[in-house]
Design goal:
Elements lengths: L1 H24 L7 E3 L10 E9 L2 E6 L4 E4 L2 E3 L2 E7 L8 E9 L2 E9 L15 H4 L5 E8 L5 E4 L1 H4 L9 E3 L5 E6 L13 E6 L18 E2 L5 H6 L2 E14 L11 E8 L6 E6 L8 E6 L9 E6 L19 E8 L2 E7 L6 E6 L13 E8 L9 E15 L1
Parallel strand pairs: 14-15
Antiparallel strand pairs: 1-2, 2-6, 3-5, 3-7, 4-6, 7-8, 9-10, 9-13, 11-12, 12-24, 13-23, 15-20, 15-24, 16-17, 16-23, 17-18, 18-19, 20-21, 21-22
Amino acid sequence: MKISFRLLFVGALFLSYFSCSSADSEEEIVGILSLSTIAEFSASQETQSVTVTANAYWYTSNNNDWITISPTNGIGNKTINISVSSNTEFNTRTGSITVISGDLSESLIITQAAREEITGDLDPNKVPSQNFDLATWNLSIPINNGSGVAKTITVSELNGVYKNDTYFYTAADGGMVFKCPVDGFKTSTGTSYTRVEFREMLRGTNTSIDTKGVNKNNWVFGTAPQADITAAASYDGEMSATLAVNHVTTTGDSGQQGRVIVGQIHANDNEPIRLYYRKLAGNTLGSIYFAHEPAEGSGAEQWYEMIGFKDNSGSNPPDGIALNEKFSYNIKVVGDDLTVTIIREGKADVVKTVVMANSGYNNGGQYMYFKAGVYNQNNTGDADDYVQATFYALEKSHTVN
């Protein structure tokens, strides 16, 4: 009996030892996941780094179109970059991202400051987007984007602290300067002329919306089909600008010298209006005229002189506009009526209305966007010859659905 008891006791110890060893070897590894803190972002496009501390695979979740993360996943400890696009609104915005590892998750609140209020006072020490509301514009400049066409400065980039000392900058009096040489890259292979010009982008920084089409990036005329009015961001429109043309080309073909487009409505493929300033080399004053181009298949282009003359050899236009002289224009569309007004201090307004009922823009599928800046209309002059205008006000509005 004593021998049996000792054997049972030794067996129990043996089983107890191996049972404990097995439990120790199968002990579950405790997950680790934590994130470093982050400061409030400025209103400009900006990137900050966050440290992920982990001991396993992790990935990120982000449902904010103004926040991007790189990289979006990893194993173990790693640094991720969190970037925000420019805040084009006058309100602080908040979002969050989440990092997930197994059953663990950590969220990080992202806060971005509101854009600075625009007082209307032009400050020569500020970039253009701090003096003007550029929340729904992008900008084309005539440098290579890497594909042989002009570079587009996005809405987000433009509304950061963007300037370009050659093409787009703030003047000594606070105005917004657009300067465009004859030589440079164009917006497409089918375009004949260079430009430093805004393109209206009603989508703002929401790049999930296409730039083209009857959609929430563009507008239509109020006489368009109801389905298009509903699908578009808005209908009808008005754009007002105050500017001075500082320089025009003086070299090249006489038919192209001295002319520049300073405002447009662009449609799918045509322009309901292109507004020109032109000063010939022998004159001290310039002219204002515009073109109305109907949609494809709806008739020939029409020209309207408002101040002075359109032709290539006209005399000094009576009551014309000199270089560096401030003037304002207003382009307004209500339904099929296009009204252009030229305003100068101390002088009567010059007004012209074009009825566009037969121009094809009230048909389905036609979409619109404003353009403003300088669109050089000389491709024959010296490479460094240029056009330049300084804008002192630029506003636009639409009827919202």
